[in-house]
Sequence to fold (223 residues):
Amino acid sequence: DAMVIQNPRYQVTQFGKPVTLSCSQTLNHNVMYWYQQKSSQAPKLLFHYYDKDFNNEADTPDNFQSRRPNTSFCFLDIRSPGLGDAAMYLCATSRGSGAPDTQYFGPGTRLTVL
Amino acid sequence: GQNIDQPTEMTATEGAIVQINCTYQTSGFNGLFWYQQHAGEAPTFLSYNVLDGLEEKGRFSSFLSRSKGYSYLLLKELQMKDSASYLCAVDNYGQNFVFGPGTRLSVLP
Fold:
């Protein structure tokens, strides 16, 4: 089935140790998003790619970087995780056709920082 | 600025009807979406509105009034599995979704 896949589902890292989260999609969608969601809060958009065009939200910390090497894959790099970065990280995709279009979410990666 | 408001929590009884409200003020509007999110899981799409009026999808309906910046999600014949958070999100153009804080619904037997 076409879908959005995130690996790993659970990631434990140490304070300050770089970590990379991955997302892949078989929907052939133009747009890929990374969200951070903390407990009982709304998803917060970190950045998104329209094809290869990178769009960074103004309040996304420099500690967060992203790469999209091709249409199917997108990575979230956290260069020096702090305790406050512990959260669920959601990847989503959309067609990006300009018409109203839902986002399709992956299952998320829950990051724990020790 | 961007602002979306929803009630924080609601409680309803199995078999009943519940209405979850959402008000929004965004710089652009290209549609309003409703998602369901169970604890520890990703949001799943429920419904969306672009034009004013009611959209019905089985037990779920969503209403939009663009002039009032208002939407609601109506859930009928509530089931225990409907206990979840319900997120209202506005497509603000430019692939920019703005999510509301979510409403945590508890369905009681």
Observations:
- The first strand of chain A starts at residue 4 and ends at 7.
